[in-house]
Amino acid sequence: MTSLQVSWxxxxxxxxxxxxxxxxSSHMNAAKSEKGCWFMSSxxxxxxxxxxxxxxxxKNAGHQVAYNNNSKMxxxxxxxxxxxxxxxxLPLTGDDGTTSTTLSLSAVQLQPFGVKxxxxxxxxxxxxxxxxxxxxxxxxxxxxxxxxxxxxLLVIVGYYIRRTYFDRIKYQTMQ
Length: 175
What we know:
Blueprint: E1 2-8, E2 13-22, E3 37-48, E4 63-68, E5 73-77, E6 81-84, E7 88-94, E8 99-105, E9 108-110, E10 123-125, H1 132-165
Parallel strand pairs: 6-10
Antiparallel strand pairs: 1-2, 2-3, 3-4, 3-5, 4-7, 6-9, 7-8
Transmembrane segments: 140-161
Subcellular location: Cell membrane
Membrane topology: Single-pass type I membrane protein
């Protein structure tokens, strides 16, 4: 296991990510996952909501901890970095068991293991980019484009039929 810990504003805020290695889930590409996978096993965000300049009218103001212990976030085959070009959100649960915070990440590239010469390995698209929600959006775009193509084809065929059979204009030849 390895961790990334960041704090700022005189430790008023803290962010911790834990990473682990294990076998890959069944949905991973078998050819790329022979060596196993790495994933973010937990994320924790600590903050002080009593600072009125940042948290106006905060309920239960004070030191708060929000976390997500989802088993395999950003699961990626060994030797690759996790690359998420689109935004992804992680719901974080507070100590009282309710979702208190949402961590929004955009343009993220992570690689906790196997970094060589300070460079990321080849990027493996994160599952958020391939989620059913985004695939559904692509299906709508494909369906809309297909309908427009059929309509354009019908207009062209209709114009051809009209010109061929209904507009028989006899042109006179010039002599």
